[in-house]
Design goal:
heterodimer, A: 552 residues, alpha/beta, Pyruvate-ferredoxin Oxidoreductase, domain 3, 4 domains, 7-stranded mixed beta sheet, two-stranded antiparallel sheet, 24 helices, 9 strands, elongated, B: 720 residues, Rossmann fold, 6-stranded parallel beta sheet, 23 helices, 24 strands
């Protein structure tokens, strides 16, 4: 009596979504779709407080009339399960890529059985968001798993499809479900379901249609590798073509960056001056003497340091890069040391201070970007308010060194500025007053080289570069590269920056102590990762102790 | 007004005999109550039966027509005490709450009710919050049934079966003068299915009729000597009456099968799961035609000895599928079989998990073990879930790296007014050092997780303050902080927490989160709600209530989004010299409910051409350095990360999603914590006035003029 294995059973469908995404609406639609077609259907979920933004599973069973046995039965209607059974789910719909991973991890999505429909966008988990650096899970892992763990995969960015249609993801996923042909119902039946559900039918139908087209345009991915014998769903169908899994939308920016970079490298090799403005042509030509692989990055640095300060500062940048390029063990190849030096040096030399932030805030391109993001049309007014909180130190840091130092000692000044800035200020950049104030600040640029902070940073930069150069000269390019990468812990503003500086100092001391050891580079990399593990620096101190290095 | 409206669905409650109703489990229960001639209904919301209370609230006109009295009880104890109306009067009454927490709160009233017994049917509908999705301690309602002697119904997870169980419950209660509990499992409450309706029945006797002819019977009051008689009566009269009724009505089911030397006994609520397991093993089909005989206990307490013996006698072995622990039913069956000299081997928690939810995975594994031991030939199919995880065909074969699938716990919503309370608290602790924090039940409990990591214990609803009692000695110089929601405050916190702290001169800081709704359970109204609710009395301030029981030091913050004010008030409360409790009422409307209210208003205003400004936050990617300190202080779902557009940097930058409601916490945090200048708020104004247009023109001209020099200098360096 293997009626289940023979396919005389309900079709099973699980939806993995985040609370508030409309997974319940989607499940209700599926039930209506099936019951309108004369099937018996039931859905259930675990609602309640677990739904507040958390991961939630909705489960639907649908029994076609054809499975009813003839003769007397114990129950007049099919006995439906309220739990998805691992290995026995015909269709899985995941509203997000990590939830798709969860469906696989929980055994709902299995090769040879499941038609998997997933949106490829990411809603980052709190752990990924909280990390001090890059805590994101690799999308390729999740996409690869989705392909390997399903019989057929329908993947696409159904979140942006929904957004484009002014609707929500439940509607676009319903469209993808229709396109997948995992259920034996026609597109018109799906659309009728949306229509009869009433509210916001038009945007829902638009999202449905767009997602349907997207899912059709990218043919479903079949998993030929599994080959495991298993029950085909009673209502399987649809084309089964094998294509590459589409790239995750969350990495679109990175892909575009890589493309742009490739293009820049080509241009930089032929004519470096094409990548900079006329005032930097002279310096750009000098870049031709530096390793080819690093030229594009160096040109970025030139522009950035020049905008940050002036052409003379850009020249100083170029000289500094040159010092590292001279000891690069692989100048004809990847020139990793030069690339890293060029990158980190540019970031450090353009440390974020009040003057620079004022410049960033007043650039036209920024105001345009905000308009676009806020979807403000021509007939709408936009006001942009900045939340600024300059501290006494930051102001004295910006002033000429002698003045700054004396003001820093002045209690009266501290009290005055402290009172004015204690609660922070909100500045309307788009107002006449706000824009004037900010541009005035941005125009203070010539004062910067005489400031306390500027002098402090230049000393630290030189010491850092010297340390890297010495490591390279001593033959340890790996340690040199890691020393350069340590700049990455210098982040943020105010206290965050100070915390970074503390970590950085410890790392530099450790680099000195580790020099001449075979595994110096590897260890410094581990220490750097530890420095980004927590705010308090506990992980770094622990690691330093583990390596018997100085904590203070 | 509750989070979800059932106004459309409740119309189905008017359907008459023979009509088919397609509905969620909770709506079906409501319909069943009306069909049973219920006279009064009460309850306290909580998942998974929150919606039952909401349905009843939305069904008010229908209840009124039928003359049914409905109360939103102040607590589960209140609801249970309400059943006192069925002690002397033949009134059918039903109450509902979440189990087992509701039973814990209600147990005093229920024990008294069960002692004296009832005349009218008394039904307690339990939303059993057990297993996946549960938010409470994992315990069994079964213990309460046993200790107070109340009957426990556990119907099959099928909407029609649940409807039948409601009516059967009233009848059983009346036949045995005993309160009956109807256990609705979490998933059953949210089950969608269909059933055939009957006509609604106005109560045979209404509460008004009862009041017209007051009755009393001292033998029903719990005081010696009656209380001793009650105990005897329970055993000698009510139990046998219940057993008789259950058998006569055939509430439990026996399903025959050809493999007659074995059998499965299951709780009704697990029937579908067991049948699915049998299907997977090739021993049953989708219509329940099982080869293995089954005894389905739709009544799990009392256990009917005679039925058990009849089912088991002559069988070599029987498997009991009983969820949860301790294994009360298994113990009972062993006793029964032994007493009756039946030597059938009883399997149970030796092949099934000792603890945890009996989902289809757990049950299939257990049933398979049982059949493999007793009738291996019956197993015609081996589902893949039985394979070892090492087997590549197993559904649990590793296909995705564990690190790639991170836990996604429930958390505070976008723009939640409770977030800035915890941000402010974290900032205050930077000044005062860390404090012991006693947490409570409610959305605010989410603060125990990342990114806040605030809160050490939670002792129950409204018990946040009491949970810090031992640590609140008057002479302490590092006082604890106790958190409570407005729901918990009115549930019992005002007396068990606030009054207790006043009386004992407890040195603690009490925070009451006042968001104008019982938010965690679905946005129900309560005493301090700011909305005018026609059928209820609202707008009773929390601070006034606390002062009424003797709190002297109290501050109400009417805008929790002002993080600096929250921080400063915390510091003030944590360092104040005055003795006794310091009360902080943190007031801002639940954002989930606020958005439901505000969004339609805004759409309407836009349509009417009124001037409307929409605020949202943003982050400048070039200014953000990718440290994410802002996220560690907020955790808002709308504040997330995105790829860094800067070609020189790789760490993701912070970004604000379009779902931002412009609550202001990002800006307030940036200020209060001196974070960074990357945040900005953009206000987009629609339907402009002539003055707006003039301002826009003036500003455009000014900005073009001022930016000219900066931009042309940049162009000379940046190129095209």
């Amino acid at each position: 009596m293997s009626s289940w294995a023979d396919g005389r059973r309900p079709l099973t469908l699980a939806i993995l979504a985040l609370g508030g995404e409309g997974g319940g609406v989607l499940a209700d639609w599926v039930v209506s779709l099936a019951t309108d077609a004369g099937w018996l259907a039931q859905n259930t979920s675990v609602a309640g407080v677990a739904q507040r933004t958390g991961a939630t599973v909705y489960y639907v069973e649908m029994a076609p009339p054809a499975i009813a046995p003839t003769g007397r039965t114990v129950r007049a209607e099919p006995v439906m399960s309220i739990f998805p059974t691992p290995g026995e789910v015909d269709v899985v719909i995941a509203s997000e890529l990590m939830e798709c991973g969860r469906a696989i991890q929980r055994g709902f999505c299995t090769p040879g059985r499941t038609v998997l429909i997933t949106s490829t966008h990411r809603v980052y988990s709190i752990d990924e968001r909280m990390a001090l650096g890059d805590g994101r899970v690799d999308d390729a892992l999740l996409l690869g798993a989705a392909r390997d763990a399903s019989r057929r995969l329908v993947a696409g960015d159904f979140a942006s499809v929904a957004e484009g249609a002014g609707s929500v993801i439940s509607a676009s996923l319903f469209g993808a479900l229709a396109a997948s042909e995992a259920l034996p119902f026609a597109r018109e039946q799906f659309e009728r379901t949306i229509r009869s559900s009433g509210r916001a039918a038009e945007p829902s139908l638009a999202a449905f249609s767009a997602a349907y087209d997207l899912a059709r345009a990218a043919p479903p991915v079949s998993n030929g590798a599994s080959g495991a014998p298993g029950a085909e769903p009673v209502a399987a169908g649809g084309p089964a073509a094998s294509i590459e899994v589409m790239d995750a939308p969350s990495r679109r920016v990175e892909r575009e960056k890589a493309q742009t970079e490739a293009e820049r490298r080509r241009i930089a090799a032929a004519d470096p001056t094409a990548l900079v403005g006329p005032d930097l042509h002279g310096l750009a030509r000098r870049v031709g003497d530096l390793p080819e692989a690093a030229r594009s990055t160096i040109l970025h640095g030139l522009v950035r340091t020049a905008v940050y300060q002036d052409v003379g500062y850009a020249e100083r940048y170029l000289d500094r890069v040159g010092r590292l390029a001279a000891v690069d063990p692989d100048p004809q190849g990847a020139a990793a040391l030069t690339v890293e030096a060029a990158r980190h040096l540019a970031l450090w030399m353009c440390y974020q201070d009040t003057i620079h932030v004022a410049l960033q805030k007043t650039r036209r391109a920024r105001l345009e970007r905000i308009r676009t993001e806020a979807r403000a049309g021509a007939g709408q007014r936009i006001d942009v308010h900045e939340f600024l909180h300059p501290r006494v130190d930051e102001i004295t840091d910006t002033l000429p060194a002698a003045l700054g130092a004396s003001l820093r000692r002045s209690r009266t000044f501290q009290r005055l500025i402290g009172a004015a800035t204690r609660d922070g200020m909100i500045l309307n950049t788009t107002s006449v007053r706000g824009y004037t104030l900010l541009t005035l600040m941005a125009r203070c640029r010539p004062l910067r080289p005489r400031s306390l902070r500027f002098q402090r940073e230049q000393r630290a930069i030189d010491a850092w570069l010297t340390a890297a150069r010495e490591a390279a000269l001593a033959g340890d390019a790996s340690l040199a590269g890691e020393i350069l990468s340590c700049q990455g812990v210098l982040k943020g503003y105010g206290e965050t920056w100070e915390r970074g500086e503390t970590s950085f100092r410890k790392l530099m001391a450790a680099a000195g102590a580790l020099a001449h050891r075979e595994d110096a580079g590897v260890r410094l990399a581990e220490l750097r990762a530890a420095a980004l593990a927590d705010e308090a620096g506990a992980a770094l101190d622990g690691k330093l102790r583990e390596y018997a290095l100085a904590v203070a | 007004m509750a989070e979800r409206s059932f106004a459309a669905e409740v119309e189905q409650l008017r359907r008459g005999a023979g009509e088919v109703i397609q509905a969620e489990g909770i709506l079906a229960v409501t319909k069943a109550l009306l069909q049973s001639g219920v006279a009064y209904v009460g309850g306290y919301q909580g998942a998974p039966i929150s919606h039952l209370m909401d349905v009843l609230g939305d069904a008010r006109p229908i209840l009124d027509e039928l003359g049914v009295r409905f109360e939103n009880s102040a607590s589960e104890a209140t609801a249970a005490a309400m059943l006192a109306a069925s002690v002397h009067y033949p009134l059918r009454g039903a109450i509902t709450f979440k189990s087992t927490v509701g039973l814990n709160v209600a147990s005093d009233a229920l024990a008294n009710l069960a002692s004296g017994g009832v005349t009218g049917g008394a039904l307690i509908i339990l939303g059993e919050d057990y297993g996946e999705g549960s938010s409470i301690m994992q315990e069994r309602a079964h213990a309460f049934a046993m200790k107070s002697q109340m009957w426990l119904l556990d119907p099959r997870p099928n909407v029609a079966a649940i409807v039948d169980a409601v009516e059967a419950g009233f009848e059983l209660s009346e036949a045995s003068h005993t309160p009956v509990m109807l256990d609705l499992r979490l998933r059953s409450c949210h089950l969608r299915g269909s059933f055939v309706a009957k006509d609604n029945r106005p109560p045979a006797m209404s509460v008004r009729d009862a009041l017209a002819g007051p009755r009393r019977d001292v033998s029903r009051i719990v005081l010696p000597p009656a209380s001793f008689l009650h105990e005897q009566e329970k055993i000698r009269e009510r139990w046998p009456a219940a057993v008789r009724h259950i058998q006569e009505r055939g509430l439990n089911e026996v399903i025959e099968g050809d493999l007659s030397e074995v059998g499965i006994i299951t709780q009704g609520g697990l029937y579908n799961t067991v049948n699915r397991s049998l299907e997977l093993l090739g021993c049953s089909d989708a219509y329940g035609n099982t080869r293995v005989p089954m005894y389905v206990m739709n009544v799990t307490y009392p256990v009917i000895d005679e039925e058990v013996v009849r089912f088991c006698r002559g069988k070599r072995a029987v498997l009991l599928v009983e969820e949860g622990q301790p294994d009360y039913i298994e113990q009972a069956l062993n006793t029964i079989l032994r007493r009756h000299g039946v030597d059938t081997r009883l399997y149970g928690k030796d092949v099934l998990p000792l603890a945890g939810e009996y989902n289809s995975l757990a049950v299939t594994r257990g049933v398979s073990r049982f059949l493999q031991a007793e009738r291996p030939d019956a197993v015609e199919h081996e589902p893949r879930l039985l394979l070892e995880a090492e087997d590549p065909r197993s559904p649990f074969a590793p296909r995705v790296s564990g690190a790639a699938v991170q836990p996604r716990l429930p958390g505070l919503c976008t723009g939640c007014p409770e977030r800035p309370i915890f941000s402010g608290m974290k900032l205050a602790e930077r000044e005062t050092g860390p404090h012991h924090v006693s947490a409570d039940i409610g959305c605010h409990l989410f603060a125990i997780n990342a990114p806040f990591n605030i809160g050490a214990t939670t002792m129950g609803y409204g018990l946040g303050s009491a949970g810090a009692a031992a640590l609140s000695a008057p002479e302490t110089d590092h006082r604890p902080v106790a958190i409570m929601g407005d729901g918990g405050f009115w549930h019992n916190g005002l007396t068990s927490g606030v009054g207790n702290a006043v009386f004992n001169r407890s040195n603690q800081v009490m925070v009451v989160v006042d968001n104008a709704y019982a938010a965690a359970t679905g946005g129900q109204d309560l005493l301090s709600s700011t909305a005018e609710v026609p059928a209820r009395s609202t707008r009773h301030p929390i601070e006034a209530a606390a002062r009424g029981v003797g709190v002297d030091w109290a501050r109400t913050i009417d805008n929790t989004y002002d993080v600096a004010a929250v921080r400063d008030t915390f510091v003030e409360a944590l360092t104040a010299e005055e003795p006794g409790p310091k009360l902080l009422v943190m007031q801002s409307e639940c954002q989930l409910n606020r958005q439901r209210r505000v969004r339609p208003e805004m759409r309407q205003a836009l349509r009417e051409g009124r001037r409307v400004t929409r605020e949202r936050f943003g982050v400048d990617p070039e200014t953000c350095t990718g440290d994410h300190a802002c996220i560690r202080l907020s955790g808002c779902p709308s504040l997330t990360i995105t790829a860094n557009p800067d070609p020189l940097r790789s760490d993701p930058v912070a970004t604000v999603l379009d779902s931002c409601v412009g609550c202001g916490v990002c800006g307030a945090n940036a200020h209060a914590a001196v974070l960074c200048p990357s945040f900005y708020r953009s206000d987009v104004t629609h339907n402009l006035t002539p003055r707006d247009r003039l301002t826009i023109r003036l500003r455009r001209w000014w900005i073009r003029m001022l930016s000219h020099g900066l931009e042309s200098r940049a162009a000379r360096l940046e190129g095209s």
